[in-house]
Design goal:
This protein is α/β, with parallel strands linked by helices. The chain is 49% helix and 14% strand. Helix 6 packs across helix 8. The radius of gyration is 18 Å and the shape is globular. 11% of the residues are buried.
Amino acid sequence: MEESNIKARKFDAMMEIVLNNTDSEIVIDNGASAFIPLSSYLLESRAIEMAEEHGHAVILHTIVTGGQAFQDTATGLDSIIKQFPKSVDFVVWLNEYFVPIAQDGKAFREMKLFQTHEERIKKVITLPKQSELFNQDMREMLEAHLTFDETMGSAAFQLMRKARLFRIKKALFEQMEGL
């Protein structure tokens, strides 16, 4: 990114790597501030279609949060599903860090949003509300830019912290099975 604009040539180079890679899965992780420019680049460049022509299945992951940000993140999910080609599947991460995700007493899978796009939503993964100890461990792992496995090998994390992080990893990975 340069200010609020994406550096398209850098993404062209990234897409070159993606399109020429046939041996492994590729994950492109971007921050929230780059999501709209990256989506615009992918759509304008028809990068999704090119990836599919090169044999790649495209799955987009997005987050829906509870509380005050629910309406914005739910509207964002609806919008991106409508914008991307029908061949693209989605994984929705329900972030219940602050509060459970519900609207008018309905859980996410009971909402019109989910039911409208159910055929495109390949998986729903819940990030459940945890105790402050679990949250602090997770926050410190992410701030250190470590993966779960790197944390397990790190002397900076004590045994009890590793045990809590292992429980979080196990719960998340069980939900991700089949992706």
